[in-house]
Specification:
Elements: E1 8-13, H1 16-26, E2 30-36, E3 41-46, E4 56-61, E5 76-78, H2 82-91, E6 100-103, E7 107-115, E8 121-129
Parallel strand pairs: 1-4, 5-8
Antiparallel strand pairs: 2-3, 3-4, 6-7, 7-8
Protein name: VOC domain-containing protein
InterPro entries: Glyas_Bleomycin-R_OHBP_Dase, Glyas_Fos-R_dOase_dom, VOC_core
Domain VOC: 5-127
């Protein structure tokens, strides 16, 4: 067996429409639509504009129990123009962390966390490859 790629990340949300609105309007993901799962409603979002098997984020509405966000992001989204996005979100009073700048042997990184309507931290990162030796 060979793992081909990460097929999806699942997040519980308290209000599906509000969360879909956040992820599509603020982060630019594409929603395939809202559907009924066995015990709940859910939406599948994609990072790629026209591929439905690429970069899936599944939001599942929980109607009972409290949503408890993780203290740190479970995943990150690679973005372009991360500094401008940070400024835009901050100016619209969307909760964001401070920008962080760091280097690895292979890339230069700029990143920050944004918090969805339920308080889930999502890391947004821009990586620029360093020239190889």
């Amino acid at each position: 067996m060979t793992v081909n790629f990460l097929a999806g990340v699942f997040l519980p949300v308290s209000n599906l429409e509000r969360s879909v609105d956040f992820y599509t309007k603020e982060l630019g993901l594409r929603c395939r639509g809202i559907e009924r799962w066995s015990e709940s409603r859910a939406a599948t979002l994609f990072t790629h504009p026209d591929k439905d098997d690429y970069g899936m984020l599944c939001l599942e509405e929980k109607t009972s129990g409290k949503i408890i966000p993780a203290p740190k992001p479970f995943f990150n989204l690679n973005v372009s123009g991360v500094e401008a996005l940070h400024k835009s979100l901050h100016n619209r009073f969307i909760r964001v962390s401070d920008l962080q700048f760091w280097d690895s042997p292979w890339n230069t990184h700029i990143m920050f966390d944004v918090y969805d309507p339920d308080g889930h931290p999502i890391n947004l990162i821009e990586s620029t490859p360093k020239e190889s030796c």
